[in-house]
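Q: Structure for this?
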Amino acid sequence: MAEIALKPAEYSAGVPRPAKGRPAGAILENVAGWSLATPALVLIWLMFLGPALVVIGLSFTDWQFGMPTVAWIGLDNYVELFADRVFWISLTNTLIYVGVLVPLSVGLGLGVALLIEDGLSGSRFYSAIYFLPVTATMLATALAWEFAFHPSVGFINQIFSFLGLPTTDWLKNPDTALFALVAIGVWQSMGLNMVLFLAGLRAIPKDLYEAAAIDGADSFFERFRRVTWPMLGPALVFVVTVTAIRSFQVFDTVAVLTDGGPNKATSVLIYQMYQEGFSFLRSAYAAAITVVFLAFTLVLTLAQATLLDRRTHYS
Amino acid sequence: MRTARTSLRSRIYSVLRHAILLTGGVVMLFPFIVMVSTSLKPPSEIFSPTFTLLPQEWYAIENFREAFTRVPLARFILNGLLVGATIFLFQALFALPCAYALAKLRFAGRQMTFVLVILALLIPPQVPAIPLYIGMWQLGILDTYAAIILPSTISVFGIFLMRQFFLQIPDDLIHAARIDGLSEFAIVWRIMLPTAIPALTAFAILSFVWNWNDFFWPLIVIQSEHLATPPLGIVFFDNAEAGTNYGPLMAGAVAITAPLVIAFLVAQRRFLEGFAMTGLR
């Protein structure tokens, strides 16, 4: 997304058209442009930008859902938030979730894409299998995972005990619950990363590999190091950021499998926001959590923009 | 000598490649296997200490009948279709004219409009949730189809995607249409729309998959069982069964997962192309 902002020249270039020379034509084009863009613009303000500003404003008030009065309380919500043990647990959990999920999901997605693209047979078959979880309804597959994680009859414990590995009640054990959710998240998200990497790999000009081969780079790892990896750079930055932003939004599996438990071990930012805002109806407090969440998302986007910017300068 | 060695090596590599991809593939398919297998079994086999792929006693009809009668599962699926289709129609209705204006018209404020689209693209869908909920409460439309549909009537991603597509369409086509006396409005719907069908199809798939699978927003605005979309419906079912009646529950999960999975298997290439487009940004 932020790649766009980096190339203003390309986008500010006007659409070339025969010179009309008459101001009437320009006025008509202005009218046409505005009347075609305005309905969408109004909705963008109503559904995204306006509410985002309202959330920020709301986070400085004491409003609770349904209350007749509202008062400006400055930073009080944030003071309370930063003293809130559950907030720090949720934030830490979210960061652990993202920090473990992203390398696994991106690494496995890249590995599978390389293996699929490197061979002649079965490419479509394999990409279909690995992509299947992306289209499947997360809620439904989460219930299947819940059954697979079942402590006594679950498939996972049966395999683990067959292999002589330790078993546990994965989703109820505070030490493992978050990582069980990470496993589900990796399973669900890596297929999309694979597809994005496949598109990136297919965009690499084949003559680069031929040139590298002439230079003596004929092993898989040499070709990867000299051609694939540098050429895949921008795609990699994009995939990492998108995966990080998406996994920051983790909610479905938490809400349906663990309710943030046991003992807050799987409470994450959006889940806490949901509880405060829609269960306890503390709208302003939930708005403050939303602002923190938004800030993290924007930092990730900014990091992506900076990285891509530096890369374009080097290349 | 050398070629013999490389061909042996490449054969080993090929076997290894298939072995790795197949093993990983089984892991990827495993939740689906668990889901389908469980939906075919009677409770006694589900809770037996050894896992079997196929049931000894087929119990599929009982499980699926239970799933479709205990909760209005067919209604959930219809709701999903209705909501998904309506949302996509609105998204196309608003995105196409705006994308055309951004790609092909010079108007004061075009840059600003595009900046706003990009800004909105950066805002995760959970951020506007609280104000939208308050707004809908004031309008008295919580717990209605409108509450599910309204926030998604605009897709900034759709605008962005269609704009990128329209940029590639030659201006001559538009000039010809103008010379024929078509208004800009008519150009959008009679010239641009037909040329945009491939991109629009890809976007339709993305939009439908996202909205069919969305859980967060329906969970917030819908209380009535008969208005639930598929993911919310399966949670109502899960709560009603207290999470112990796995056979019918997995049958329900199969029923709401099947439409998209089948659609994907039928139109695999279109799905993959569509999702690869999310990388265009």
